[in-house]
């Protein structure tokens, strides 16, 4: 007989039975707890609080958690096993995953299509009637691979371990297959029978592309970070383990080079950069900040090693934009006033809040242009228990320095300047929520805020557009786009260091 223990999760009010000795990481991910460092005990992203029972403390937890936190019952769940009955507190993650409801021009065709945006953190799939263009259903989820690391580099490291690549590939293929099956089972347009599913288009960053398509990720782990790229990848449903009842065409669109994936190709399609008469920019701010500069004559692109600061990772109190996250900070009577998602007690800060907090700190004179605190302490309080540390500022400087250097080098390659760009499209969830004035204040997006245009989930919109395009048209844009390795540019490090400073204004 299997020896089991009972785990009560608060404030969810759920009770689980698991086999004694089961790592908490094995079952907490599906209940909203994330493991940014891949469960290595190198961050505080998976904290839980023991309400009843006991969880042991090891050296990793002593290194990452303050003595007062340990005494209050806080633990790193990635370092603990369920050895006895427990009641633990975990904040419920209520995250808005960015979908797309844009209207777009298309040439009608028969059948159904599914567009999938395969992100490092989140997944979105939409089912469309290809004749009417109508969206029949939407499914969103957290990427099940995230329990093995929240950013692409920890995911790659796990993939290079024994059997790691197979685990990640199987997990994501199975998850997306279930999402598509769920869309088909619940879709309907009235009493008439739905047409068959004829086409599935997937887009994602280079790491997600390789881990789905069974392509070796080892070139992504070391210089010069140039992956295999054989154009659009095609699959049979049975090959992926998908029981769809039909035999639709399944395509994962081509990457553009390095860490610039097919999600950015989709972004070019969505913003029509390849048709634009004047030069514009596109930036997707995430772990790898991808930048595109171009027009109908020429397109250049690059990925910057921005780090995960914009997504809340490697920030001492960092988290995603979910319930309990400080997402907005403003100046109020000479102090910082924090706004929290979900109108609940604060428990962390997300990327948009971090940018606001630093911008406000600069305006208040709490933070200097070099990033140092004027109070000569190692941290400044935001909203208890959330603080901003000197290391957090450094992480943001590294991220924004990489983005600034990327922009400067790419516009130079195009023979223009950042001031001459007609507009800059800001893609993705972070771009949807960031305060453009704050981004300019810290030097992250040094443009007239009126030129910066949030455009939402361009990866998903571009994937939907690709459902109506032939393979050659997508590949033609890919071949037209020149990829540059920023680290190979002789001026990169000097520009990078310069861009790390905050403006003095």
Question: What does this entry look like structurally?
Answer:
This protein is of the alpha/beta class. It has a domain at 4-89: Beta-grasp domain (Ubiquitin-like (UB roll), Roll), CATH 3.10.20.30. 28% of the residues lie in helices and 24% in strands. It is built from 14 helices and 24 strands. The strands form six sheets. A six-stranded mixed β-sheet has the order 10-9-8-11-13-12, sandwiched between helices. A hairpin with a 4-residue loop joins strand 14 and strand 15 (289-294). Helix 4 (152-159) crosses helix 5 (164-186), helix 7 packs across helix 12 and helix 9 (390-413) packs across helix 14 (492-499). The longest helix is centred in the last third of the chain and has 24 residues, at 390-413. The termini are far apart.
